[in-house]
Amino acid sequence: MTMASRLLVDVHTHVYLPRYASLLRSRSTVPFIRTNTTADGLSEDRLLILENEPSGGRPVGPQYWDREEKLKFMDKHGIDISVVSTANPWLDFLPAAQAQTLASELNEDLEQYCATSPSTNSSGPYKIKRLYGFGLLPLVPEVSTTSVLRIVNQIASLPHLRGLIMGTRGIGQGLDDEALDPVWAAIEKAGLVVFLHPHYGVDGSAWGDKDNGHVLPLALGFPFETTTSATRLILSGVFDRFPNLRLLLAHSGGALAALSSRLASCIDHDPRAASRLKHDARYYLGKLYLDAVAYGPEELGFVSDVISRSTGYEAGTSISKTPDRSLGSQRMFFGTDHPFFPPLEPSEKWKSVTENLEAIALVQGWSEEDKAGVRGGNAMSLFNLRE
Ligand code: 5CU
Questions:
Q1: What Rg, from alpha-carbon coordinates, does the chain have?
Q2: Labelling 17: which of 69, 82, 182, 282 has CA 20 to 30 A away?
Q3: Ligand 1 pocket, 12 CB below 6 A?
Q4: Per residue in 225-260, pLDDT tens?
Q5: How far is CA 273 from the centre of its chain?
């Protein structure tokens, strides 16, 4: 194993860059940052990004925007490299012209944030920075395709941006919208990784009347949203038209792995969807990359089995009966979701980090090499992390 493949790389870690945080401060409807005065006369910033945000929003501070805080967090947890993305809701709430200008400015800001970061200690033939990034596209209704393509090209030209983060709404009609085809084509051609991340959850009426805080929208709503949007993308035949598109799903792809055979069966029984696809639905799961933000070894093992099994579902081939967990691990990547999920009590390390690392360490059937891959080696290759 080379030194570089032993690095710990966080592919799911967010920032509200100062320019974006100022925008949130200038607003008074969701999404926004509100400054409150506490009972003892101190000022406290609170973040409100979700519709019906419970408990008047959450406390936010420099860990959301200050690069030094990101680096301190990485040092505390032994994280060598972070591939940083703007946190939700990105530019979704802006008019097209403003979204386009801000996308371009924030991409430049993120390039600076990464380019001026320190280098890792890795002693190898390549210099490797500690920070790389996912850029942003102005994906909002009424934006012109030309504008979006211009930003794809901008991201591809910025040396420390290795992909882009995308929500689930596309330009208003979701990710199965044919109007996105030129965008997929440009992203595929540029070799950028698309990080698909939720924000809206699903119909909140299912959550009932009990006050469960953020638990249901975050634990279920977020991953269900990812499951639905990735399924719609698969059903629209995007992977048949753009077979080299690299799509990384947040939160280990939500419920997609658990539901993929049911999905395949429903397609088989419905000619409208079946006629659109070249392969069994399970084949497309093998085209995905998934973060390992699942917090449990059993879930990671299961998901890696399902991804690996997809190789048996290419049209015209026989189904492989034995999943190859090791093969599946090669499409999985450590992540933390920082700066979300901070510890409630002062603690040395964040549970959201230690649990995900422990989960990787405990997956049955992953070799030490597989685990090192998930911790960082896979990300080094996927994002080509070198100067
Ligand atoms: O805690 C949350 O609301 C979030 C969020 O909004 N985005 C995210 O990536 N993780 C957690």
A1: 20
A2: 182
A3: no
A4: 999 999 999 999 999 999 999 999 999 999 999 999
A5: 27
- What pTM was estimated for this model as a whole? 0.96
How many Å separate Cα 342 from the centre of its chain? 18
- 319-369 pLDDT, tens per residue? 666 788 999 999 999 999 999 999 988 888 999 999 999 999 999 999 999
C-alpha to C-alpha distance for 118 and 120, rounded to whole angstroms: 7
Both structure tokens of 56: 């008047």
Instruction: Tell whether ligand 1 has an atom less than 6 A from the beta carbon of residue 47.
Output: no
Regarding the beta carbon of 88 and ligand 1, being less than 6 Å apart is answered yes
Centre of ligand 1 from the C-alpha of residue 340, in Å:
6
Give the chain's domains with CATH numbers: 4-16+62-382 (3.20.20.140)
Q: What residue owns the CA closest to ligand 1's atom 6?
A: 88
* Residue 109 burial (CB count, 10 A): 18
CB 293 less than 6 A from any atom of ligand 1: no
Does residue 30 line the site of ligand 1, with CB under 6 A? no
Complex confidence, ipTM: 0.93
pLDDT in tens, 34-51: 998 888 888 999 999 988
Residue to mutate (ligand 1; options 88, 215, 344, 353; most atoms within 8 A of CB): 88
Which two three-digit tokens encode residue 47? Answer: 């973040």
